[in-house]
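REVIEWER CHECKLIST
Item 1: Sequence provided? yes
Item 2: Single chain? yes
Item 3: Sequence as submitted:
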Amino acid sequence: MVGTVSLAAGYGSDGVYRSPRLVAAIASDPGLSVTDLVLRRAAACPSAPALVDAATGRALTFGALRSAVLVAAAALSSRAGVRRGDAVLLLAPNCVLYPVCFLAVTALGAVATTANPLYTPREIAKQAADARARLVVTVSDLLPKISGLRLPIVLLDGDGAPVPSGCPSSNVTLYSDLVAGVQEAEYRHTPIGQGDTAALFYSSGTTGESKGVVLTHRNFIAAATMVTSDQDELGEGHNVFLCFLPMFHIFGMSVITLGQLQRGNAVVVMARFDVDAVLAAIERHRVTYLFCAPPAMIALAKHSRGGRYDLSSLRCIGSGAAPLGKDVMVAMADRFPGVDIIQGYGMTETCGIISLEYVQKGCARQFGSTGALVTGVEAKIVNAKTMKHLPPSQLGEICVRGPNIMEGYFNNVQATESTIKNGWLHTGDLGYFDERGQLHVVDRLKELIKYKGFQVAHYKRLRKVTFVGSVPKSAAGKILRRELIAQVRLSKL
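Item 4: Structure as written out by the authors:
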């Protein structure tokens, strides 16, 4: 039974916080796949741009995207032997073919597992083994990292680079050869349920070993609605999103690429972040939305040459993947007047989204929160020791539930049971809701620094400081504390 909402914060008498947003219908067809969700746009707007290469301007319309995905799916099935339930490892920088391959894999009922191109060969091998990958889709520059996997390889670029020793050339197929002569009509639709696994994304591992997060078609379908409902509520038309965030990360794939494509928005694809290249792409492609991680926001805030570019198309710049300080948001607002500067919060385990700021025109901004819960997501704040529900302005662990929540960790029952309890995902993050229903994420529960058994608060005196040349961070901008700890341990040997 739904509790009565007693506060503007959306806090009910049952101790549950609910989204203040209008309820948005999430597609309920049990046989709908995430591929179907995206490709249905081909019928509505076949000639509209879907994916655009930021550097060259070459684009795939929604009609061409549908054809490319179905041809790739047919080729992967008939020529590479990919079957329902098989895992396919995607190891490549952002490119137009990346989401084509992702959607082709999911169209077959197979499982896409994405890996960071910066991983070491050992890390790649570990993920490939854990995910039980049967095929690798990659680029020629990364061949040396996977030569020891002994798996069939599909090469996206095919620039004639020599195959490294230890990697049999018979194992390597150029993507262009794979799809050559294959017709869209050869694709045979595979019955897929929303509850079937679509992808294995690996958590960032900030608190330990990286774990495979099992995400279903329903998770992606729900998340796609959640991240675009504000655009619909505001009556926005066609939008253009710039994506330099890595597509192997849940932010880049779920929130930007799949979420925006299913709405009919265009996604401009960049292989990597460069401030001038980003600003030039905004001008050239009339970008309206730019989603970033904090390091990119900081770089943009400090950039002094923005005035050289026509950025009049830009409506919104959003930050996610790691906390962003008020000072940076204020600096960004000064640097980009008239552009909404917002912040959101999500996890791999929530298919990338939990909360998002919603800027109401004429209302004073209070930078610092990650916004209100997105439609369809509920939350509670609990005392980490007693599990008691906490009202607004009280700090505790953030727990969430909704149709975007993962099935669990792949082949790891213990980790799943310690994270999902009675239908609630325990995020491991500390935070609180304020009286306006805005969620503030303060710290990691599992990463609190302790001294002689006591938690260190900010006013505690430091005993020792070590200066380092740089702070190790993940591709999403999160500080890799485990690497800092390892550095300290090595310094003591």
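Item 5: Key structural point noted by reviewer: The chain has one domain: 20-444.
Item 6: Recommendation: ____
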